[in-house]
Structures are given as structure tokens and as C-alpha cells.
Here is the input.
Amino acid sequence: MSDSPQNEAEARERMRELMSRPPSSRPADFVNPLEKIEQLLTCPICLDRYKQPKLLPCQHTFCYPCLESCADTLHRNLKCPECRAEHNIPYDGVKAFQPNYTLTGFLEIHLQATPESAAEIEEYIHRYNLERCKICDEKADCEPCAHCDRKACKECRQTHMDMLKRDMSRLLNQVKRLANRITEASDNLSKGIDMLTMNCETTKAEVKEYFHRYQRELKKKEDNFLVEIDTFQANESRVMTNLRDVLEIESSNMSEAISRLDAVIKGECVIEDAELVRMKNTFTEGIEYLKNFQPDADELFNRKLRFSSGEDASKLPAAIATSGELCILDPQFSGKYQKKEQQYLPRPFRLPLESDNYRVKADERASMREREADRAISRHSHRNPEPDESSIRYRRRQQLEDEVWNRLRNPAPSLLTTSVTSEATRTSPWAAERVSRSVEPTKSRPTSLIVPASESPRTVSPASKPPLPPVEKNDPPSPPAALPQIPIRKPPLPRQQSSNDESLNEKVETIRRAHQQRQAASRAVSSEESEGEDFPVSTNRGRIRIVCRAASVNRDDGLMSMIPGTGTVQPIQPITSSAPHSAPVTGAEQVAIPVTHFTGEEDEGGIVVPAWLQRRRQRFQRSRTNPDLQAQFTSARVQQLLAERQSRLDSSTTTDEEKEKLNVLRQRGRSASREAGEWRARGRPRAVFGRKGGKEGELNWPRGVCALAGGLVATCDSSNHRVCVFDREGKFVRQFGGYGSGNGQLDSAAGLASSKLRVVVSDRYNHRISVFGLEGDHLFSFGGHGPGNAKFNNPWGVAIDDLGSIYVADKDNHRVQVFDKNGQFIAKFGSFGHLPGQLNSPLFIAVSKVSHQVYVSDSSNHRISVFDPHGVHLFSFGEEGFHGGQFKFPRGIAIDSQENVIIADSGNNRIQIFDAQGQFVSSFGTWGGGAGQLKGVEDVCVTIDGSIVVTDRENHRIQIF
Amino acid sequence: MASSLPRRILKETQRLAADPVPGISANADESNARYFHVMIAGPEDSPFAGGVFKLELFLPEEYPMAAPKVRFMTKIYHPNIDKLGRICLDILKDKWSPALQIRTVLLSIQALLSAPNPEDPLATDVAEQWKANEAEAIKTAKQWTLAYARKSLKKALLHQHCLVLAPTKIIET
Here is the structure.
């Protein structure tokens, strides 16, 4: 910013330096403007400033004195010193040569070449040569604006940058305001980590305590068992020892007795007999005892202890296994909380950024598409939570649980955290920013940056949204890309739908189906072709308005005719032929010209035929150039005259009758002023013929019309699928065509054009052009349905130029196609749109025989577009409206021999006449069913004698004006 | 005479000094402002390359209505320049125009050196030779240039006249 003045100063300094150098040592491309000017002001003879510069016939200039001195006075000739051309010296001498006024003027400026002034001039020239800023249209040093990619001046760039900065600061504020969401979240997380540790510790303690308790129980039980076993052992062992002791005593007693008895028997000792007997008893008893001694060894010595876990032995481990459960408790309202977040976050960030308004068109379109997609997604994402909120919450918890379980199961923290962080950062634009700033590619860089909105509401921070145009731009609710997916919902009227390239096949299918339906329907009620087909609803409104107007006009006329013969006002009578170029008019008709009651003009002209004609031509000329002025003038004039008369009348006593006359006069004046121009006289038809029906001479929705040789008129009787030919009086001559798609058959033919030898018909619903001989013999057809070259989608108007080339208004392809006389495709022009050179449902077309310009009724743009023969758009005229020069769905076009352009202003139910430049000249016709009134006028043509033929579509007739 | 010097001559002199033509120098004589000492370097692509030719140029009283009188002082082998150094050049004669200047005249002479025109000779013998055996003629012209024009170069150097005789090649050879 601050360096550019410095640059300028530097440049000036450099300039000065260069100036001070001799010319030969300057750079080759350096031109000192002042020196150049000085050179131009220097006489090549005296090398001084020109003194009285004289211009020689060879266009070289010299000082008068110098010329004088090099003139050959003897031979009275002068050789130009520059080019050696010889000039005769004029009679008055050299001074009679033409002074060079231009140079004189320059000399008066007194330029003095100094480095300073040269630098200034250089600067001026520099400024002059500067580019214009593409934004403010001022000349300046332009550089591409980083914001909108257009070359713009510094101020505009600055403004844009300021704007951008403002937006950025707003964004920054938003971001700042919302940045704490992330810090909060991270704080919460660290808090959560603490909580988690605590929670886990306590849980651990709980688990420990729990298990400890049961361990004690078990231990007690164990101890009990052990004690029991001990007691058992003690008891048993005591019993068994006792028994053993007893047995041992027994055994020793026994062995003692045995040894004593042994000894006794051997006689070693003496024993008393008694004792012996006792012994014998003892032994007997002893044998008996021993015999019976059968100790139950198992019972006495083999008692065993066994531990059994009891009947529910398996239950315990199962109980242990199943005992205890770790439950993860989510905070309450978690799902709700998330939903709230969704509501809060992503949507409000469609800030209406002012800088977005300056995006270039392409960007806008791209972002629009993006936004459409975005919106489609977000619609999904916003619609979804409502119906199954619970499922979402469930899913989220599930996810959380899984996550926790994962964490519990694989304690390897690195794996987990990395996956989590990459998850979190993937969607964050700041990550992308960071990545783009650091050169090395990051591993977690996502492969595609498109982030579905449904997934990202929590992690996408506000500024991540690409800057979008403000939301207030209302777009068509359904994105065009979505169209092919819902073809079934298309309206079943294939003929009206505009071409949609993607779904051609479906279209063809639907067309065929609807066609069959229509066929059936049209057989039943052939005339019931819907009106809505040709007129959108808006025209109906227009028609009502026009009805009012028509009524007023009618009243005017009615009042007029009520008082015939009053002095100043002459009744209007129909004029059959009134164009200046038409055949001579008869006397009776001359008198009826509705122009003669203006006093000023009466004085001039009277009723003499040639003068009248002349004046009319003059008026016509004037009205051609500026009809509005004309109208103003006449109306002012009339108003003035009326005022005068009013004052006169007021001063005297006025009778009612006179007042009435006055009123009439006023009304007359008003209507006359409205209908200025000579085309006014066209308002009455010369012939009206045709009525609804299918017989000869009847018509059903007549559309195109054209004049044939011999004063015949041909019209496309569209719903009778034929071409009817009438003579100029309206007598039916012949017809050809017929319903069908075969050769020579037609299906709702619309446009019609004729050359000397043939008639060209646009066979609308067969999407082809058929060429017939003048007698109706089919020659050939070409075309077919489609968007390609030489294919049509509802071809409507046709035109033939002098070379026989055929121009076709390809209505639903929104273009004009040109073919040579054999039907070979030559060119096409126009595309859908409202910009200059674009077309929206072009209906009819006409080619001027003089200028060869192509006039296209750009119907849905309510204008006439004019192209040169190569399809270059020249200009358009007209706009939507009901005033003169405005249109409502203009249709037919004709060009008369005077190069006037006659337009069938269909929605306004009138014929308008323009000159070749598109200046409004006049109009006639109103809504209605009477003669001269029109309903849905379709096409016009001009016959050789200058009559205008109009197809009055909804009256099913033709009128010749 | 110098007092009644036309402005044009003054201007031309000034411009010749301020913005000299490469390969040409013209300096007014100190005693006579209408008399110029001229040096023309032989054009590179001609047999006169490497030589510097001295000329004298005189502006007659009628100048610019009459052509200046120019003469080669250095001997030169050229079909349109005779032994006396007179030059056969249309603009110095009937094709003179007051719109021409010293500068343009000298440029024309330089061009004449580049493109000798034996069809319109002044030195008939040279022209004959030129027509009969151009190679020989060119050789002679080169010899003459070496013989006479280099001498004048030295002289010019001595006289400090050739400040603007730009081509350094001359000095090298």
C-alpha cells in the first residue's frame, strides 16, 4: 500500500533521467510522448514550430513561409518536400493552400518538452491506457483480486479485503466464542480421567472387599472341615489304640497261659489238678473265643474320611464365575445432550458473509451445488434424530460400551489413543490447515476432505464450513442432480416438459404413453386441447386486465357510432387496406380515415388523396422514429384544444346535448391519442373465416400461417393435424396432411413456412420437419426427437430464407436450428436462459428478406431476439408487460416489405408492429370473439399485397387485416 | 555570414552533436558554420568496412531550398564516386527536397557505400570494372580502403575527430 507512491516517484525519476539522455542512447522501446508531439509540431523544412501550417493536397503540412520559399513561381507548381508530389499553386498563391487547423489547434497548446512535463504526460498516458477495474469500472492499476479472481483496482481490492477482514473478524469472534467448546471438552476429559481413576480405584476396593468377605467365609468353612477331620482322626486313633492295647494284653495273657500249659504238659512243673481242670476250662473257653474272634477289620481299622463338596458342588464355581458384574454407567441424559449440541452447533454457522456476494459466477454455482449436496445431507441428518432418538442413544451407548470394553480388554493405550485421536482430528479443518502448512504429509490425512455433515456435528468446528453464499438466495427446492432419480413423479404431460438431457429414455417412454392416452382422449373430445397447455396461469390474469381495457375501447367506439354526423367528429369506418404501400384505395374508404378531425391537420391537408397519402407517410415516418413523442404531442394538442373549447363553452350557456358532445369529443381525443400512428387503421379485419370443427373450412386450434403464391393462405390446423389452404377471401381451397407419423402425416403441426416451390411444416409431436410441395405432395421429412444436432424437441416455428435455408425454432431445446434446403443440418444457435443471445421457449421465427436478420420470438423471456444470419445475437427488444412495445409470451413474427416487424403478442391478444430496429410503431387488436378481436393469437404472416394474416387460435379462425 | 545563419542550420548542427548517427560524425568548421567536416565509417558488410572516409559538406546560401554540396576527401574506389570525390546521388541533385537534412544526406551516402550502383556511374572506369568483374572490383575497393581510408582514420584520431566513430573494430584492425 505504502510502496506504490514510492514506485510512482521512482518511475517519474527514471523518466526524467531517460529524458535527459540523448535519444539514441535511450532504450529502444522508450518513447518520449512530448518529444513525439514536438516532432509532430515541427516543420520539416525550417525544423521549427509550424508557422501558419498549410496542408497540401498530399496531406503533408509545412509552414506557409517555407512553402512560399520552395514554390516554383515560374511554373506555378510546388513539389511536396516530403513526397515530391507536384501540386499546382492556386491562383491566389501559396497562401491559398488549406490551413492545417488541427495543427494550429495543437500549436496553441504550447507544449514545451521538459522532462517534468514529459513525465506528467507519460503518467497521463499511462493512466489513459490503464485497464478498467472490473468492479468499480474506473481506470486504475488493476491486479487480480485474491478474493474474487477479477482484475480490480487497489481500492476495490482493499474494500474486498476489508470486507473479507470484517467477515474474518466475525468468523474469528464466532470461532473464539466457540473455541472454548474444545478446551472445555478437553478439560472435561482430563477431569474425566481423574474421575475415572478414582472411580476405578473405588471399584477395585469394592471388588476386593467383596471377594475378601467371601474368602473369609470360605476360610472359616475350610477351617471347620479341618477341625472336624482332626477330631475324627483323634477319636478313631484313640479307639484303635485302645483296642490294640486290649488285644495286646489279651495276646500276652494268652501266650502266658500257653507257655504254662506247655510246661505242665512237659512236666516241667507240677500243677494241681484243680488248676489243671480250670485250665482245661480256660482253654476250652479260649478256643471258643478265638474261634469267634473275627474282628471286622474294615469297620475297625479302615474307616476313611472323604471330603465331598456336596450336592451343589458345581454351583459354587459357577456362582463364583458369574458372581459380580462390572457395569459402565453413562451419565444421564447423554443422548439428549448430544441432540442439543446438534441443534446448537452446525447450522447457525451459515453466516451471511458479505464477501461471498462478490464471488464469481462459477464459484457461486459450484458452491451452490456444494451447498445443495450439503443441504441434502444435512436434511438427512436433521430428520433422522427425531423419529428414532432412542436408537441413536442406544447406538451411542453401545459404542461407548464397546469403547470402554475395548479399553478394558486391550490395555495397550497407544493403539487406542491413536485411533481415537485420528478419529477426532480427521474431521477437523484445523488439522487440514496444519497439514497444509507443514510440508510433510501427515499419515492421518483423510483421503477425501468431504465430510458428511451427519457424522461431523461434534467435531467440525464452525469455520470448517466452506464459505457459502448467503442463505437468502432461494433455490429450487430439489437439486437438479436429484431429478433423474425420481422420474416417476414427472408430470404426465410430456409435451410441455422442457428437455432434460439425462432422462431422455424415460421421457421418450412417458411421451409415448401420454401420447397414447392423448390419442384416445382426442378422439373422444378432439377439441378439448387444454388451454393451460399454451398459457401459463399468469396470462389469465393478463387477459382479465385486457378485458377491461377492451371494454373501455369498445365503449369509446360505441359512443362514437352513436352520434354520427356531428360537426367535428367523424365516425370511424373499417378500412380494408391502408398500408402506404398497398394498392390504391377507393374514394369511399378515404373519407373514413379517422385522422381528419384534428383541426390543425385539417387545415394542412383536406381530403385530397395525394396530399393525404403524403402526410400519412410523413406521419408514419415520424411515428416510426418516435411514436411516443408523437402520441404525447397529439394528446397535448388535443388537450389544449379541448381546454380552449371548454372555456368557450363554459362562458356561454351550454345545453346538455352540447355537454354530451363534449364528453364524446374528450373520449375521442383520449382514444385517438392512444392509437396514434397509421397502423391504427388495421384494427378492422378485411376477412374473418374459420370456426371450430374438423370439416373443410373449419379449424381446430390453427397455429402457423403463411402466405402462398397466388394470394393463398396456408395454416396449420394443428388439432386436425392438417394444413389448410384458403384463398384471400377465406374460401377453402384444399388441405393436406392427416394424423399420423408416417410420411406426409402430421401430429399437431405448429409452424408453417413457404418458399416458391414448397411448404415446410414443423411436425411438432413427431419432432420433425416435413417438406411438402405446393399442392401438398410430401417431399421429405427430417429430424427426430432429441437434443442433438438435427434433432428436435417440440419444433415450433419455421422460416425459409431466400436461399431456401430452413430455420426451425426448436422450442424445448431452446434454440434455433438452421438447415439447408435439403434438410442438411447447417448450424444452431441459442441456449436456454434469459441472457442476451439465450432463448427460453422460442416459438416462432422469421427471416428478413432484406437484412437477412433472424427474428426469434423468445416467448418465455417476453422478447424478440434478433440474430444475424450466422447466429450472432444482435439485439433484443421488448419485455413483459402490456404497454406498447411490451409483450406477454410473444408468438408469431412476420416481416413486411417495409421491414416492419409484426409480432403476435399472444398473451396480450394483439398484434404489435415494430420497425426493423425494434422501435415500437403501433398495435391493434383486443381480447374477444368479435371481428378484429383476438383470443390467443398464434402466428402472423404478411401476404404479397401487404395484408396481415393472423391465426386467432382460441377463436379457431383466421383474420386478415 | 554566420550572423545571418538560419535557425534550421543551427538546429541541425545542435542535433547532430547531441544525437549523432552511429558511424557518422559531422562537425561544423570553426570559422564557417556552413562548412562541415564529415567522417563516415565504411559499412560493415561492404568492401569499405574498416575504413573511415573523410568528406566535406557545404550548405549553400539557398539551403534548405538547395541541396548541400558534399565531396569525398578520401580516395575511394566506388562506381558512383569519381576521382575528385564527387558523388552521384539523386538527392544531392534533382531529387533534393527541403525536407531532407544533413543527417539524411549523410545516411544516404552511407547507404550508397553499402550498395554501389554501377548502372548509374560517375566514375565510368570503376563502373566498368565493377560490372565486368565484381570480385576484382571489390578486392580493389578493399585495397583502396586499406590504403587510404585507414590513413585518414589515423589522421582523424590525431585530430580528435572521431569521437563517435563507434566501431571499435576499426581500431583493432
